[in-house]
Known about the structure:
Layout: E1 7-20, E2 26-32, E3 35-41, H1 46-54, E4 60-68, E5 71-78, E6 96-100, H2 112-122, H3 129-136, E7 138-144, H4 166-177, E8 185-189, H5 211-214, E9 219-221, E10 226-230, E11 239-244, H6 249-255, H7 257-262, H8 268-278, E12 307-310, E13 317-321, E14 324-328, H9 337-341, E15 352-355
Parallel strand pairs: 3-5, 6-7, 7-8, 8-9, 11-12, 12-14
Antiparallel strand pairs: 1-2, 1-4, 2-3, 4-5, 6-15, 10-11, 13-14
Amino acid sequence: LNKKDKENATIIGIVMKKNVTKNGNFIFEIEDLTGKIKIIVGKNDADLYKACKEVSLDEVLGIIGSFSKGIMFGRKIIFPDIPLTKELKKSPDEAYLVCTSDIHVGSRLFYREDFLNFIEWINGNVGDEKQKEIARKIKYITITGDLVAGIGVYPGQDIDLEIKDIGEQYKELANLLSKIRKDVILILCPGDHDSVRMSEPQPILDKEFASEIFEMDNVVLVTNPGFINIHSSENFSGFDITLYHGKSFVYYADNVESIRSSGWTARGDLIMKHLLQRRHLSPTHTATLYIPDAKNDPLVIDNVPDFIITGHLHQVSNLNYRNVSLIGCGCWEGLTPYQEKTGNKTDTAKVTLVNLKT
Length: 358
């Protein structure tokens, strides 16, 4: 605010308001710890205008422009983003990671037979010789939330349930997962259907409801979001993975025009890219429920991972952005009447298989 008229200025701040004028220009109101300021961005620069359309409320922006009469005129927008120099890691040996999500055990639409067939493949009992050879090299399975159907998660869910007791749902989940060979590490994070609080960060599963899961030696329970490293050795640093169920994703599918027009909730990969560029899993207030913490925001993408693996949308999507593999997982539940009503689709009984060497 102390700048001279038309003097160049650079600021970083949080977006409080975003509007479009009658002439088609964008007006942002940006704040930092010292105050707030209005920023006008003209429509003449096509790339800049496109960037402005992508901006969501509450995200952090860098803006370069000039200052005049209490208003800043923006010429360039800079997102936090991740560096171009991120290394694409490859394992020295051939090992496989399987990514899946949203099993929804307890739902009457749970694809139990398909899931059992999936387990038989992991155990090397089905498929041709090449498929069996790959199955033998599977070392890790991530399951990113909604392990069970839950109880009372949405209106009228009761009619969609085959198992109507949350403890029995987890008991059946443990029964199924115990059939997987014991040298495969199962990494489980919760989602909005699981027996933990809805607000993020969600803690690991509750032992009171899922005691059988806690007794399994090859299960690793993580929070949501969860941060893990796999497949490290003496000569290899391993892969850093961010697991996030993805409750915030529907907001960005609805509100970011480029995502909405490119496939909506089918494009979890574009949502992940959008959020990775913001370095936050849910920058907009109310996009997901969360526990505020003034000292540490667990949804900030602080360290850049090698993988971001998500669920919630029930549709498979994959993208590599600046050497970060973005994986959206399918599900094991058919399309419920509730999902059908909201216009969703499902990729049921499909998993993503990652060769860590390539």
